[in-house]
Specification:
It is a single chain. By secondary structure, this protein is of the alpha/beta class. 46% of the residues lie in helices and 12% in strands. An eight-stranded mixed beta sheet has the order 3-2-1-4-5-6-7-8, with helices on both faces. Helix 7 packs across helix 11. The longest helix has 27 residues. It is globular, with a radius of gyration of 18 Å. It holds the Pfam family adh_short. InterPro entries: NAD(P)-bd_dom_sf, SDR_fam. This is NAD(P)-binding protein. It comes from Suillus subaureus.
Length: 312
């Protein structure tokens, strides 16, 4: 347990960054999609990408919030992002959203699987009856990625470096999460878990999913990474109690820092060589929990995810 806490602390209090938003290369001609980009790290990621001339899709559930974010971003960057409605907690909505994107864009160069929910009330489930955290953070992103994969493969074929990037936002909370399939849907076993334990499980799922994408699609030009964006002040902590929010405000960083690691993975020349890697703040290669490196666990999770969406 000591080494787990050591890793947790190192990632919470990282050394000074050597990578800055200004280091993101020009993204002219690149199509990028960021889930959950109406606020927080996703919105900051979209902001930087717009300043670097990317065509940016903001994918989120709430149309009003998405359009508000697009207005804010246009005011700050002079560039207009595109809106895509995406409810990751409803698999039929995910399917419709992915298919709508493919109708609009045959090519996708970078997919930021950034959206997430953290420690909601235990009674909250997805529309399909899954634990809200695992259903949104893992299953929803798996299905969306699966649907838009043809566009990503086309993006890899078109890109000068022969790659398209899938950047999966995880967390150092994955160090405290192990997969328990009995808790993926509502059940007595799930009710015995804490909301934070279920969050850690979903973040472990993100790392395993990213690694399996790397194994399955790496030879086709897909570069799949997972990362901990760092302790950042965002709306993700909206379900925290007041004491936890106070502590978070004392130790967490500005949201501008939270976008750095995923921007590094998704845009830089160095990022093309990061397939299967896990990154930590700020823009460094890090280590995962040993379970997250188990290809059998990753394959079993992939098979379970495929089973959930086969009849949608």
């Amino acid at each position: 347990m000591g080494h787990i806490w050591s890793a947790f602390v190192r990632e919470t209090f990282p050394p000074s960054t050597q990578f800055f938003a200004s280091d993101v290369p020009d993204m002219s001609g690149k199509v990028v999609l960021v889930t959950g980009a109406n606020s927080g790290i996703g919105k900051e990621t979209a902001r930087v990408l717009l300043t670097k001339n990317a065509k940016v899709y903001i994918a989120c559930r709430d149309k009003t919030k998405g359009e508000d974010a697009i207005r804010d971003l246009k005011e700050s960057t002079g560039k207009e992002a595109c809106f895509l409605q995406l409810n990751l907690a409803n698999l039929k909505s995910v399917k419709a959203s992915g298919e709508e994107f493919l109708r609009r864009e045959p090519i996708l160069h970078v997919l930021f699987n950034n959206a997430g929910v953290m420690t909601p009330p235990m009674e909250m489930l997805t529309d399909d009856g899954y634990d809200l955290q695992f259903g949104t953070n893992v299953l929803g992103h798996f299905y969306f990625t699966k649907i838009v994969m043809p566009a990503l493969l086309a993006g890899a074929a078109q890109s000068p470096d022969g790659t398209a990037r899938i950047v999966n936002t995880s967390s150092n909370a994955h160090w405290f999460g192990s997969l328990d399939y009995n808790t993926f849907k509502d059940s007595p076993a799930r009710k015995q878990k804490s909301a934070m334990g279920l969050y850690g499980q979903s973040k472990m799922g993100n790392v395993l999913f990213a690694a399996e994408v790397a194994r399955r699609y790496g030879d086709q030009g897909i570069v799949s990474t997972a990362l901990n964006p760092g302790g950042v002040k965002t709306e993700l902590s909206r379900y925290y109690d007041s004491f936890s929010k106070m502590i978070g405000n004392m130790v967490f960083h500005d949201v501008s820092f939270g976008a750095l690691t995923q921007l590094y993975a998704g845009t830089t020349a160095e990022g093309a060589n990061l397939n299967g890697k896990y990154l930590v703040p700020w823009a460094r290669i890090g280590n995962t929990h040993p379970e997250a490196q188990d290809p059998q666990q990753a394959s079993e999770l992939w098979n379970w995810l495929e089973e959930q969406v086969k009849d949608i």
